[in-house]
Specification:
This protein is mainly α. The chain contains 7 helices and no strands.
């Protein structure tokens, strides 16, 4: 066989390998973006519910304006951070953790107001926020899974060479705070 044909065959094989590897990396990157968009949808739903919840409790909680202000500020920070997209997953997660903390504080205060606890609108909004929190958790779990797969694919040989040359970068995980990850301690002795 002529050496030119051998070189040509080797170049075609290398070209096909690069093309298939590139296409695989693009596909994984698109899956990460899609998973981020699912988180975005749930976060937007959560952000849209919060003003309704704050308005529903505002009249009952005259002395708790500081808590309501924290919730509103946390929501604003979370909305701003979410606009960064998947590239800002770490910042978005931090802002969402702050919002979760503010909402927990608000829900704890609601328990101190019997009229508010009995209000159907507030109960319905609390239920919607709780359901949305669960959906965010599932979306976050899926997102982190596809980020792991994407990061692994761009860090392993031989894909790492192609990924580096073509500008593929690791994606951040959407992580919860350490305090939220800890198992709560329950003491049944009083």
């Amino acid at each position: 066989m002529d050496p030119i044909w051998i070189v040509l065959i080797v170049l075609v094989v290398i070209g096909l390998f690069i093309a298939f590897t590139f296409n695989g990396l693009v596909q994984r990157r698109n899956v990460v973006d899609e998973a981020w968009n699912q988180i975005s949808v749930q976060l937007k739903r959560r952000h849209d519910l919060i003003p309704n919840l704050v308005n529903a409790v505002k009249g009952y909680m005259d002395f708790e304006q500081e808590t309501l202000t924290k919730v509103v500020e946390a929501r604003g920070a979370a909305v701003s951070a979410a606009q960064a997209g998947p590239a800002g997953a770490a910042q978005s997660a931090q802002a969402e953790n702050f919002l979760t903390s503010a909402l927990r504080q608000l829900f704890a205060l609601v328990e101190n107001y019997p009229n508010l606890k009995a209000n159907e609108n507030v109960l319905s909004l609390q239920e919607e926020v709780t359901t949305t929190e669960n959906q965010i958790g599932f979306a976050r779990q899926h997102y982190n899974s596809v980020v792991r797969d994407f990061n692994t694919s761009i860090q392993t040989f031989p894909s790492v060479v192609i990924a580096g040359l073509l500008g593929f970068r690791n994606r951040d995980y959407f992580q919860i705070e350490e305090a939220d990850a800890a198992v709560p301690q329950v003491n049944l002795r009083s």
